[in-house]
Queue: 2 jobs
Job 1
Amino acid sequence: MTAEITSVLDRIDSSKEDLADLMLRLGNTYGPFGQEAATAAAVHSWYGDNGMESDYVEIIEDRACTVGRIRGDGTGRSLIYNAHLDTEASGVDYETLMAVPDPNRVGARREGDRIFGHTVQNDRGCMAMQMIAGRAIAESGVQLKGDLLLKSAAGETGAAPTDEYRGLRYEGKGFGTSYLVDHGYRADYAVIAETTDFAASWIQCGASYYKITIRGRNMYTPRLIRGETLATQPNAIVRAAHVVELVEAWAIDFEAARTRQTECGMMRPKAQVGAIRGGIPWRPNRSSTYAALYVDVRTLPDEDVATVTESISAAVRSTGLEVEVDLIMSKAGFEAPRSSIAPLLSDIEAAHRYVRGVEMPEYAEDAVVGMWRDTNVYNRVGIPSLTFGPSRGKAAEQGTGFIELDDFIDGAKIYALTALSMCGDLRP
């Protein structure tokens, strides 16, 4: 092994406490979805404190990204590590409807070598890991041939403007990463820094959001005349109960018809009703003339969204109810050709083998392949991309899981070795 590689790995080994402190610092910075600027500023400040180059990239007020950079001499391949700043929404919508404490306000805590907190699990733990790996390379003095970019992006998690929730504050699913790519922060390859249990996935589902509007009649409770079935009730909310049943049945068939084994794992494109609105909460003495369902549909890579729209529309209109189906967001999934990501995958596999002493898992968890991740942004523009990261503690309830610091030290070493190989032609 070269002295340069030894220097980098030794620096990571001695950075365990720094990694924990950085995870807690980022995890306890209040920066919910749509208000990521504070966390982006904390990342930018850390790079400055550690003598590293970075750009603070403002998108709109309260939304920003940060890009750290270790410059190469221009003679080799460049690489992006991409983590996301946002975790969840905040405020009254979350606190009254999600039945768990707001993870942005709960933050993160440490118990021994375990870090608790959803903000760290998704995704500031991986963000801290890539920052520590980058710092080890920068401080070692090794001269890379290609640039290494360390992105902390806003707006990865799912959201879409609708109803009164308008404007760029509500853009998600690759919003920040797309902005950075469109403004020149590009490279030859990209790794999405997310937890995958040390497996890799270069195939990801797409995501489409639908608003289904149901109409009804306004009837005062004492004068209410009920229909014989849910579908014939005058109240749009009651009719919506029937539509929910139709969507659930459609979603089960939709998933079954599209489930398939991929090179990265089992892909199960799922769908569910995630929100409902209707009526006046403080005046329930009138049947509602309006109810709306909001549906998340995961799609196969490159699936025609028009076909999906036709399918769900036919399902909810099958009983003749007066409904409107509106597509409010559609982000395509992508499958990178195996040949395009082969050099990157090979280097990650070699680094994993060296650090952990075993081969990488052959397949990622079903949920990993079934997610929309920022790999789709890069693969869409021809930058071969995959997602790879350490293990994320499983929990029956959001916020009760944890991550192991030793796993993330291993992850930092794998990231560093991959960067040295891809950007510097240095291999152990």
Job 2
Amino acid sequence: MAMTRLASPGHSRRHLKRAASILSVVLLIGALALVLRTLSAGGSFAEVRPGYTGRCVLAAKLAVRDIAVDARTGLAFLAVAAPEPAAEDGLYLVDPAHPTAPPTRLAGVPPGFHPKALALWHDAKGPLVLFAASPGPHSGAVDIFSVHLGAHPRLSETAEIGSSLFAHVRALAALDANRFYAVTAPRVAGDFLSLLRSYVTPAKGRIIFYDGQIPHIVAKGLRAPRGLALAADGSRLYVGLAISRVLESYTVEPFMGNLTLASRYPLPLAPGAITLYGRRALLIAGDPKLFARARFEHDPSHPSPSAVVRVELSGGLPQRVSQLYADLGHPIAAAGVAVQAGGHLLIGSALGRRLLNCKPF
């Protein structure tokens, strides 16, 4: 009769020690990979090469959160909201062709309005429509305004859409005069521990679609989204993920607003706002070094580098990225938005309280 041989206690202990050693190595490799990923997200390995082939002037000292340009007139709308609510917060209008003219504060904005994201829509049959998001910690609102230009520009509010889904709105993109996308996410600080924590906790970023009647979630699980742009023909939606340093492209279903992820493209910075650059490119302003941004936020004597890149598109998908502007934070620190306005490049920063008007040579 066959006899079963029992493993000796010493043999079992050797197996346990070997398994514990393997587990320790795996955990160490995982921890090192997480640290390297966090250092990369913070910009520790990024090189900033200052440069711009043009001349820039300081156009305003305002906490510029977002900029939207009317393609017909070339005028630019500014969302101004300081890190802490301030009397200067509101919506402004500038003419990029006159860099030294002060921005015009627009009347018709609700009291206590602190706009942090903008989108414009215009068609041949209706007035210019401006969307502006004013998020809060638990709820927020997107206000829709008719724009009246002329000698005394002003706004007329036509709708206020409030929802808990609009808390933490980072960016807007208009699909038409009534429908829009919003990207939302709780703020993630740029220091090492905050970035590290963001990788080991569930991603909370969402894309919200407002269909003209109700808002609903069409994408979720995004890690620190900050920028949003819709292709001119409405077929693609572009989202920038700050911590991952990635540009995501989605195919848009035009009636229901549903999205299908089409591509993920790496970027050399933590993207902020995304704007169209003609019909075949995007402009993205952002932070080459998030760690420097976090330090600048607590100590303004240490400026944070700024950069603007252009992403070329082919078939609606990103194909190539090139630097358009960069500095070490002295002309403008922690830039968050850049737009093409006629022959001018406007760059804004909320933390740096700056609006630059740049003209290429």
